[in-house]
Amino acid sequence: xxxxxxxxxxxxxxxxxxxxxxxxxxxxxxxxxxxxxxxxxxxxxxxxxxxxxxxxxxxxxxxxxxxxxxxxxxxxxxxxxxxxxxxxxxxxxxxxxxxxxxxxxxxxxxxxxxxxxxxxxxxxxxxxxxxxxxxxxxxxxxxxxxxxxxxxxxxxxxxxxxxxxxxxxxxxxxxxxxxxxxxxxxxxxxxxxxxxxxxxxxxxxxxxxxxxxxxxxxxxxxxxxx
Length: 226
What we know:
Layout: E1 2-9, E2 14-20, H1 22-28, H2 31-49, E3 57-62, E4 65-72, E5 75-82, H3 87-103, H4 120-131, H5 139-146, E6 156-159, H6 160-181, H7 190-225
Parallel strand pairs: 3-6
Antiparallel strand pairs: 1-2, 1-5, 3-4, 4-5
C-alpha cells in the first residue's frame, strides 16, 4: 500500500506537497505514527538536500515499511510503502508523479519565501495518481511490473537506522572540529593557545621550584648570621 507521498525541493530540503492514502489514515488511525512517518520523510529529504544520500533513486527500509524516492530536475519525489508493495511499481508511481509535476505550474515555486507544504493543489494530483496504483493486481499495474528490464538492480537500498547513525556521527565530528577551530578569546589564536597550554604548566613548576630554593637559601643565610 502507498501510505504517504512527499514532494520536496532538493536545493534546500523544503517539503512542498503532501499526500496520504485514505486507508493509511482510516485503518491505522494513529496520529502519532502518521506524524512520525512524516518527520522521518522530512529527515530523509534533508539528507538528500545535503548530499548525504547522493543517489537519484533509492529504497530505505524502516521496520515493516520502506521509503522509495527519486530525484528529477531538482525535485525529490518520495513515497512511504509497506514492505510488501512491489518496488518497481512504487518507482513507476513516482515517475508518473514527476510527469504530472512537470505539467503543474505554480508561480514562485523556486522562491525562497515559499512556505512548507504550500502546494496544496498538487495534493489532489497526488491522490489521483495514487488511485491508479492501489490495486497491484490490475492489468495496467501487472503490465508495468512485467514490462522492460527489472529496475530493482539499479536501486540502492539502505536501512533508516544506518542513515540516522551516520548523521549523528557527522554532527559529532562537526562539533569536535568546530571546537578545535574556535579561537580562544584569551589567546586570540589557536597557535598561541596551544603554546600557552604546553608551556604555562612547565613555567609554573619552574617558578615554584625557584621560590622554594630561594626560601631555603634565605633561611640558611639568616641562621648563619644568627
